[in-house]
Amino acid sequence: MDTSDSEGDSRKSNNKPKYSKFSQQELPACKPRLTPGTVVVAFSLIGVIFILIGLASLSASQEIVELVDRYDADCVPTGDKVGFIQNSETDKICTRTLTVPKHMKSPIHIYYQISGFYQNYRRYVKSRSDKQLRYKNDVHVTKDCHYEANTDDGAPIVPCGLIAWSMFNDTFAISVNKNTIEVNKKDIAWKSDKNNKFGSDIYPSNFQKGSLIGGAKLNESIPLSEQEDLIVWMRTAALPTFRKLYGRIETDIMANDQVTVVIQNNYNTYSFGGSKALVLSTTTWIGGKNNFIGVAYLTLGSLCLFLAMGFIVLYMVKRRTLGDPTYLSWNRDTLDHRY
Ligand SMILES: *[C@@H]1O[C@H](CO)[C@@H](O)[C@H](O)[C@H]1NC(C)=O
To answer: Measured from the CA of 267, which atom of ligand 1 is nearest?
Structure first.
């Protein structure tokens, strides 16, 4: 008797859920009461913080010094521009002089900017073989590379496709006050692209050997993962006006210095009416020159402050007196009729 009873007791106590604050729904909880006061304080706080961030971003963007020099029109003779560009005998050197308006702090980024070039065109953007770029055993996988897949005798072009074929091939040599400045072209491509998308054991072959040259040639003794200009070019731009990183200058340039750029004007933007420009730009923590973030923060911050004001007027200045039921009816007459 005794034993069976105590057994039953112990079974019962085993079935009981283990006590915890969670199973008993006793966890501490935060139940904010959204009174007009707290709402006004919250909106004002968010508004002030956003306006401060907006002002900081705008001032960082204003600090950036950016020089843009469009050179495509001045660097060809008037007349047959396409013929001039396609002729390998013509002298394509073009010298440009820029005056720096404000002290430019290193690193100064050098970009080329192209307009009217639709790198997002569907048949262009698909004309590449990611397998071939990455794996040595797949160098013959060129089925997606329409128009620039194989040579006439069937050997695969590495890298194949229209994107690689149309790679930018202008060059820039820069000097400041007649002293040559070294342009650092290391680490201009994304690290992830270099490590994960382009093979370190794949070398260019049969590239740019056809009858129509689309752009730059590649050094066949350098593996694809080290061809940073190619990697930058193959990260296709989404819009028809785009900038791509060319290199960096690692010395400061003072205000009123004369920057001389010797351009090899090779790339053919003339046959499709595009334009080319050289961009020198410093950077800050927000990146390049762009006011959008600052303006967006200022707009949202002002909106929050405006809403806070609205709440003050609606709920704190014009508040109804407690215990007054008249607000329930549209006018007093209906009330009087009913009673
Ligand atoms: C540069 O590219 C153009 C096509 O845009 C081509 O006609 C020219 O031959 C190329 N020049 C060099 C030096 O690679």
So the answer is: 5
Cite the DSSP H helix spans in the chain: 2-15, 36-63, 81-86, 122-125, 130-134, 162-165, 191-196, 228-234, 292-311, 332-338
Ligand 1 center to 85 CA (angstroms) = 7
Cα-Cα-Cα-Cα dihedral sign, residues 328, 333, 337, 339? positive
Q: Compute the distance from residue 235 Cα to the ligand 1 centre, in Å.
A: 20
Q: What is the pLDDT of residues 20-77, one digit of tens each?
A: 888 888 899 888 888 888 889 999 999 999 999 999 999 999 999 999 999 999 999 8
The alpha carbons of the chain give a radius of gyration, in whole angstroms, of 34
**Residue keyed to tokens 């040639």:** 217
Ligand 1 pocket, CB under 6 A: 85-86, 88, 169, 213-217, 266-268
In the chain, where are the structural domains located? Answer: 34-64+285-319, 65-282
- The secondary structure of residue 227, as a DSSP letter, is -
Residue 281: phi and psi, rounded to 5, are -150, 140
pTM: 0.79
